[in-house]
Amino acid sequence: MRHLFDEYLLDTDRRELQRGADAVPVAPQVFDFLDYLTTHGAACASATIRAASA
Fold first, then answer.
1. 1: which residues sit within 8 A by CB, 6+ positions away?
2. Which of 3, 9, 21, 51 could cysteine-pair with 38, CB 3.0–4.6 Å?
3. Long-range contact pairs involving 9-14 (C-beta distance under 8 Å, separation at least 24)
4. Rounded to whole angstroms, how far apart are CA atoms 35 and 41?
5. Which of 48, 26, 21, 20 is nearest to 12 (CA)?
6. pLDDT at 48
7. CA-to-CA separations, 33 to 41, 53, 54, in angstroms, rounded
8. Minimal CA–CA distance to 12: which of 4, 20, 41, 49?
9. Coil, strand, or helix at residue 15?
10. pLDDT digits 0-9 by tens, 1-54
11. Half-sphere exposure of 27 (CA within 13 A, CB side)
12. Inter-CA distances, 22 with 43, 44, 48, Å
C-alpha cells in the first residue's frame, strides 16, 4: 500500500520511504511507526485531543 503525505511516499509493500525521487533511509521501527500513523493517524489524533481537553 502507498501512503502520500506532503512530498513523501511511504510504500509499505516495498518498505520504503521516499521524498520525491530520493529514498529516505529509516530504521525498521521508524518505518513501522510511520506505517501505523498513516493507517491509524486520525484515531491517534482524536484520542490525543480528547485527553488534552479532559
1. 11, 12, 13
2. 3
3. 10/34, 10/35, 10/38
4. 9
5. 26
6. 47
7. 10, 25, 26
8. 4
9. coil
10. 998 888 999 999 999 999 999 999 999 999 998 998 888 865 655 554 455 555
11. 3
12. 30, 29, 32
Distance of CA 35 to the CA centre of its chain: 4
Q: Is residue 34 within 8 Å of 27, Cβ to Cβ?
A: no
pLDDT at 53: 55
- Per-residue three-class SS string for 25-54: CCCHHHHHHHHHHHHHHHHHHHHHHHHHHC
